[in-house]
From TrEMBL:
Annotated Gene Ontology cellular component terms: cytosol
GO BP annotations listed: fructose 2,6-bisphosphate metabolic process
Superkingdom classification of source: Eukaryota
Enzyme class: transferase
EC number(s) per entry: 2.7.1.105
Record family assignment: In the C-terminal section; belongs to the phosphoglycerate mutase family.
GO molecular function ontology, one term from the record: fructose-2,6-bisphosphate 2-phosphatase activity
Organism: Mytilus galloprovincialis
A Pfam family assignment: His_Phos_1
InterPro entries per UniProt: 6Pfruct_kin, His_Pase_superF_clade-1, His_PPase_superfam
Keywords for the protein's UniProt record, in alphabetical order: Kinase, Transferase
Protein name from the UniProt record: 6-phosphofructo-2-kinase / fructose-2,6-biphosphatase 1
Length: 92
């Protein structure tokens, strides 16, 4: 829609909501959505370009833990507990 390119908008939101917005504007699948990197205390600037958006991350230099989890190679429901927990960030 062209309406989303009419005016500047600032959104302050939770990381989960930002992942949804980034997935929408970057044409990512629902499967990729939980694994999009959304750092805490960061301004994410989206600039419309032909066939997509340019993404800029502007850190606010506020100390915070990294809450990002990489997508596991094995997502089988029958995997072991150790395999399932292998992507948990070290601060947990």
């Amino acid at each position: 829609m062209e309406l989303e390119r009419q005016e500047n908008v600032m959104v302050v939101c939770h990381q989960a909501v930002m992942r949804c917005l980034l997935a929408y504007f970057q044409d990512k699948s629902a499967e990729d959505l939980p694994y999009l990197k959304v750092p805490l205390h960061t301004v994410i600037k989206l600039t419309p370009v032909a066939y997509g958006c340019r993404v800029e991350y502007i850190s606010q230099n506020i100390e915070a833990v990294n809450t990002h989890r990489d997508k596991p190679g094995d997502v089988c429901r029958k995997r072991s507990t150790a395999e399932a927990l292998s992507t948990v960030p070290p601060h947990y």
